[in-house]
């Protein structure tokens, strides 16, 4: 993450650089600012392009991820971006810049993990680039996907009076990370903390290391035409809701009692003596999908997901008004949610 | 560059991971191992994908490149990869991981340079990713190009008895870099070297900072069907010739007197008291095209390039035999050329 608001910086660097008409003539349907770009490929299909970068010491460390996990997750994050457009992932390019601490054997393991993910999602690895680096490893994966022409699901399609849904529980990845960092610090220093972080359950560690992008859910939403907007939860529920709210010009109200809290997360949070809500709202990298749909289609949507054996939680609704995100607590009290995303290893 | 042989490492990490038949069924025409990958996009066209990464302290430093140059060159290197397949560049994705030393103002300048290059080659910037980094800047650009279906020019098409050509002079970028590093060291330390490096002429600095990929030459070669193999000179003439020799299973013999030595490079090398041949053979980043063609088409090829106002130098020929690269000196003495590429800032 960047210290300042990443999105306003990117806007400042890239906005109004190339005329919209020119981009459109060049076949660009969706440019910078969504989970993936969409470009006309053939009369019946658009191609989707996503790129995601993982940086050592920023997104992972030796104590949080195995070498295989780094490769797996670098591709999985991109698969999730394609899923968030309703697309099918196809081809990947992998760029690595390698510091001396990453031996050829470690890199082999990284690629083991990456190809494991590629096999699982049917992705062909078609190219890449390899360079050295002075200190930290950087893995940058570009993923090409495909979607029916003109039908990629954007962030900007939500309108007031719709339901807000999510395709799985959130906060698990952040809970797992919390546990791994806490346990590691205690082990490293040899001094148990005043309140020692208990070791995290395997399911939370797995959620952090081996996310399972919602490709099937994304396709279902696109094919059945249910989702008016869609985003993947990479930076945290609040931050992703903000993106939809701003892109669509709506207010999003989440209902705290409806947020999907997994049993193992609740119990681990209790062990740690922390409120899991922080992880659920601001912990990223769950790679479930957050979207909106017409209220009239709620029952059908629920039935569809149930029949496919996929989870779906309706967690709030959209309202007219300034772009913003709110949380209604159990007691009915409404408070605004910050736009901030998740900072993996907060520095200073 | 990596300390060991980059290509054998990449092979070890990626080879035989995915069955050829499966890749082919997934529409992959050219996978890992050429300048760009090629994938079926529509009945009449293939799409090309290339990715190139520039790492601070490995590919550039403050004293060798302005911030604008870094952005320009990161895209230009990819444009050259597409040119080397005979393709047309279309869409780019830009991933940056940003250390504290790169302020938003510096990043703005980097994007100024990148969009300058995009404008020059008609490339639409459609997406990207932005993360922070602990120390060094990494810019990774993915470029999508297009080419007539099944016609991308590979490295593997050379056969014995063909001519070897290059589409411009080589060694200029390395000469410019040598000059900038030499001058900077002298300036930094305050102690003039025993043999002080004179400041490099502007044309060599420009060659290093603002390379001009041979898109027009690549298209001409594809449209007229002249090139049996093609590669861009990113790692150095010897290294690129080795790639063609190995991929095609031929021996390549370069003729020293025919190598295109630019006047300003010859005169600067004399000033520095060095032999420019090292720069010409092993200095990379000239981004001209190196290729092979039938002997019978030599006159036609020369006439075509002359009529288009483009440079073309016939610098050697292919022979039957084990894959290898040789240099015939003026006196007719033949010596083998190393496979090594260029190490920007050799360490230890």
UniProtKB/TrEMBL annotation, chains A, B:
The keyword ATP-binding applies. Residues 33-147 form the PurM-like N-terminal domain. Keywords: ATP-binding, Kinase, Magnesium, Metal-binding, Nucleotide-binding, Thiamine biosynthesis, Transferase. Pfam families: AIRS, AIRS_C. Mg(2+) 3 binds at residues 35, 81, 232. ATP binds at residues 128-129, 155, 234. GO terms for biological process: thiamine biosynthetic process; thiamine diphosphate biosynthetic process. Mg(2+) 2 binds at residues 52, 81. GO terms for molecular function: ATP binding; magnesium ion binding; thiamine-phosphate kinase activity. Its EC number is 2.7.4.16. Mg(2+) 4 binds at residues 35, 81. Mg(2+) 1 binds at residues 52, 129. Mg(2+) 5 binds at residue 235. It catalyses: thiamine phosphate + ATP = thiamine diphosphate + ADP. Substrate binds at residues 59, 285, 342. NCBIfam families: thiL (TIGR01379). Reaction mechanism of ThiL seems to utilize a direct, inline transfer of the gamma-phosphate of ATP to TMP rather than a phosphorylated enzyme intermediate. This is Thiamine-monophosphate kinase. It comes from Cohnella faecalis.
């Amino acid at each position: 993450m960047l210290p300042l608001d990443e999105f306003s910086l990117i806007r400042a660097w890239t906005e109004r650089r190339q005329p919209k008409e020119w981009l459109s003539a060049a076949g660009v349907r969706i440019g910078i600012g969504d989970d993936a770009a969409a470009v006309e490929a053939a009369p019946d299909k658009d191609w989707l392009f996503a790129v995601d970068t993982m940086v050592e010491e920023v997104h992972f460390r030796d104590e949080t991820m195995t070498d295989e996990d780094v490769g797996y997750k670098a591709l999985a994050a991109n698969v999730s971006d394609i899923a968030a457009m309703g697309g099918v992932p196809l081809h990947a390019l992998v760029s690595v810049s390698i510091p001396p601490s990453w031996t050829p054997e470690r890199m082999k393991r990284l690629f083991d993990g990456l190809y494991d993910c590629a096999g699982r999602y049917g992705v062909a690895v078609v190219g890449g680039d390899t360079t050295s680096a002075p200190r930290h490893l950087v893995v940058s994966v570009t993923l090409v996907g495909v979607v029916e022409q003109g039908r990629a699901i954007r962030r900007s399609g939500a309108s007031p009076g719709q339901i807000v849904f999510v395709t799985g529980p959130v906060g698990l990845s952040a809970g797992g990370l919390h546990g791994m960092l806490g346990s590691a610090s205690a082990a490293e220093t040899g001094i148990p903390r005043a309140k020692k972080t208990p070791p995290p359950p395997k399911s939370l560690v797995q959620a952090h290391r081996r996310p399972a992008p919602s490709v099937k859910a994304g396709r279902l939403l696109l094919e059945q035409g249910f989702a008016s907007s869609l985003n993947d939860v990479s930076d945290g529920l609040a931050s992703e809701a903000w993106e939809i709210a701003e892109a669509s010009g709506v207010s999003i109200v989440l209902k705290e009692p409806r947020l999907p809290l997994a049993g193992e997360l609740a119990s681990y949070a209790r062990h740690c003596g922390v409120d899991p809500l922080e992880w659920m709202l601001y912990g990223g990298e769950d790679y479930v999908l957050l979207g909106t749909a017409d209220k009239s289609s709620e029952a059908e949507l629920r039935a569809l997901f149930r029949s496919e054996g996929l989870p779906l939680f309706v967690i709030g609704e959209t309202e007219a008004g300034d772009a913003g995100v709110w949380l209604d607590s159990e007691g009915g009290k409404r408070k605004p949610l910050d736009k901030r995303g998740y900072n993996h290893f907060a520095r200073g």
